[in-house]
Design brief:
There is one protein chain. With 464 residues, the chain is mostly beta strands. 3% of the residues lie in helices and 42% in strands. The chain contains one helix and 33 strands. Strands 2, 4, 5, 6, 31, 32 and 33 form a seven-stranded antiparallel β-sheet that branches. The protein has a six-stranded antiparallel β-sheet with strand order 3-1-30-29-28-27, with no helix packed on it. It starts with a strand and ends with a strand.
C-alpha cells in the first residue's frame, strides 16, 4: 500500500527521498536510510525521487512529485511523494534494497524538513490483527530494552502483544483475551510499582476497566476487571494520591466525567466527577501549578471543549475549579511551559487545528487563543511529544476522514510549522509515541482501524 507525503507551503521540506526495499528487518536499516538521505540532501538544490530537483519546471516526476516551478510569486507549494512509483533519484542505502531504486518491494519514505534536519522515516504499513483495531499502547513488555506494542483487535476479542525489533518493526509475542468488549483506549505503565510494565484497558462495550499485570517476560495476567460508572472512552495513569503507586483515570460517557481507580488493587471505582455535557474522549495527566499533585486534561468531542481539572491531595479532583476551553470536536490537550516563562500553558486540538493558550496566574490558563494552526480535517486522536529533542512539544495527529498522519513541528515554543502530511489511504484511529529504535528520539505508531495495519513513523534530528 503506497504512502503519500504532502507538505504544504514552500520551503517546509528540504528533501524527500524514496527507498524501495524488499524487507526492513535489520536494526540499523532505518538509521542508514536517514544517513543516506542526509548525504543526498547536502546537494543544492536537493534531489527529489525520479532525478528532478526541488527547483524543477513544475511538472510531475516519475515519482509523482509535483511543484509549482519555484517561481517568485510566493504561492504555496504542495509536494506529493508517491512511493509506489519507481525512479532513479532516491536514496539507495545498500542495507535495505536490492541495489536499485526501481527494485520491487515495499517503499520507505524519508522526509527532512527545516535547517536542523528533522527527518521522518515512514516505514511500510505493518499488517496486524484480523478485524478491527481501535486502540494501541506502547511499552517494554519483555524488558529487552526495546519498545513493544499492545493492540486491541476488537472483533477477535484479543489483545495482540507485539515484540519490538528495535527498527520500527514488530514480531508476534503473544495474545490475551480482552476480558471486556470494545476496547476504546489502552495505557501501558508500571501500575503496581514492581518495576514491570502493566496494561489497563477502557472497555466501552462492557462499562469496565481491565488491569493486566506484566511479569517482565512479555506475558500479562488478569488482576481485576472493574465496573465503572458510564461507558469508558479513555484511560491514563499517574500517581494521584502520592503513594508511589500509579492510579488509573478513566474518561466516561453516559454520565460524562472522569473516574479514578486507585492502585494497587484497582478494585474500587472512585467517585465519578461530572464534567461538561459530552463524553470524555481523551484524558491525560500533567501539572498545572507548582505543587506535586497531578491534574487532568480531558477532551470532549460532543462537548466541543477541553477541560483542565485540578487534582486534590487525596487523589480526587476539584471540579468546581476546573476551566473549560472551547475547541470544536475536541480530541486532546497537553500542559507544558511553552514560552519558558515559568507558567504552564495549554495546547488543545480540535477537529482541524491546534490552539495555543498561555498560562496566567499560577494554576490557571488564560482563555485567549494566542495561536491557531490548521491541521488536517476530521482529527480522531492527537499525541504530544518532543520529536527533535529541543525541549518543545510537537503535535502528531491522525484522521479517520482524510486518512492522514500529520506532524506539526514546534517552531519556537508557542508557534508551529505547517503540518507535514503522510496519507495512508485508510482511516487512522489511534496514535501513540515512544522510542522504537533506541535512538533517544520519540517515534509515532498509528492504528488503521479497518485495514488492520500499524503506520510507523520514525523521527530523528540529523545535523546537515
Amino acid at each position: 500500500m503506497p504512502v503519500v507525503v504532502q507538505a504544504l507551503r514552500r520551503g517546509l521540506v528540504d528533501c524527500v527521498a524514496v527507498v524501495r526495499t524488499t524487507k526492513v528487518t535489520a536494526r540499523r536499516s532505518t538509521l542508514a536510510v536517514v544517513a543516506g538521505l542526509a548525504t543526498a540532501c547536502a546537494a543544492d538544490p536537493p534531489q527529489l525521487p525520479g532525478g528532478s530537483s526541488a527547483a524543477g519546471s513544475g511538472t510531475s516526476t516519475t515519482a509523482a512529485v509535483a511543484t509549482d516551478g519555484g517561481g517568485s510569486d510566493g504561492a504555496d507549494t504542495t509536494t506529493t511523494v508517491a512511493p509506489g512509483s519507481t525512479g532513479t533519484g532516491g536514496v539507495d542505502t545498500g542495507d535495505t534494497d536490492t541495489g536499485s531504486d526501481s527494485s520491487t518491494g515495499e517503499p520507505v519514505v524519508v522526509v527532512c524538513e527545516g535547517a536542523d534536519g528533522l527527518c521522518h522515516t515512514a516505514l511500510p504499513p505493518w499488517p496486524v490483527g484480523s478485524a478491527r483495531i481501535e486502540a494501541i499502547g506502547l511499552g517494554d513488555l519483555d524488558e529487552d530494552g526495546l519498545t513493544d506494542a499492545v493492540v486491541a483487535d476488537d472483533l477477535a476479542n484479543v489483545l495482540l502483544l507485539l515484540e519490538g525489533q528495535g527498527d520500527g518493526t514488530f514480531a508476534a509475542l503473544g495474545s490475551v483475551p480482552t476480558q471486556g468488549g470494545n476496547i476504546d483506549d489502552i495505557v501501558v505503565a508500571d501500575l503496581d510499582g514492581d518495576g514491570h510494565v502493566d496494561v489497563a484497558t477502557a472497555n466501552a462495550g462492557s462499562s469496565t476497566v481491565t488491569v493486566l499485570l506484566g511479569a517482565g517476560d512479555g506475558t500479562l495476567s488478569l488482576l481485576v476487571m472493574q465496573d465503572v460508572p458510564g461507558s469508558p472512552r479513555s484511560i491514563t495513569a499517574g500517581d494521584l494520591d502520592e503513594n508511589a503507586i500509579a492510579d488509573v483515570v478513566v474518561g466516561v460517557a453516559g454520565t460524562p466525567g472522569i473516574s479514578p481507580l486507585h492502585g494497587p488493587s484497582y478494585d474500587r471505582a472512585g467517585a465519578n466527577y461530572p464534567i461538561g455535557a459530552g463524553a470524555i474522549d481523551t484524558v491525560a495527566t500533567g501539572h498545572l501549578g507548582p505543587d506535586l499533585v497531578l491534574d487532568v486534561v480531558a477532551a470532549s468531542r460532543a462537548g466541543d471543549a477541553v477541560f483542565v481539572v485540578p487534582g486534590a491531595a487525596a487523589g480526587g479532583f476539584t471540579v468546581p475549579s476546573a476551566q473549560a476551553f472551547p475547541a470544536g470536536q475536541a480530541v486532546g490537550g497537553h500542559l507544558a511551559d511553552l514560552d519558558a516563562d515559568g507558567s504552564v500553558d495549554l495546547l488543545t486540538v480540535s477537529a482541524d487545528a491546534v490552539q495555543v493558550r498561555l498560562g496566567a496566574e499560577p494554576g490557571t490558563i488564560a482563555p485567549a487563543v494566542v495561536g491557531n494552526y490548521p491541521a488536517t480535517v476530521g482529527i480522531r486522536e492527537a499525541a504530544f511529544g518532543d520529536l527533535n529533542a529541543d525541549g518543545r512539544p510537537e503535535v502528531i495527529v491522525v484522521s479517520n476522514q482524510t486518512d492522514d498522519l500529520g506532524v506539526l513541528v514546534n517552531a519556537d515554543g508557542t508557534s508551529f510549522a505547517p503540518m507535514l502530511r503522510f496519507d495512508y489511504a485508510e482511516n487512522l484511529w489511534d496514535v501513540e509515541l515512544a522510542d522504537l529504535n533506541a535512538d533517544g528520539a520519540l517515534d509515532a505508531v498509528a492504528a488503521a482501524r479497518n485495514a488492520n495495519f500499524l503506520a510507523v513513523l520514525l523521527s530523528a534530528a540529523t545535523s546537515r
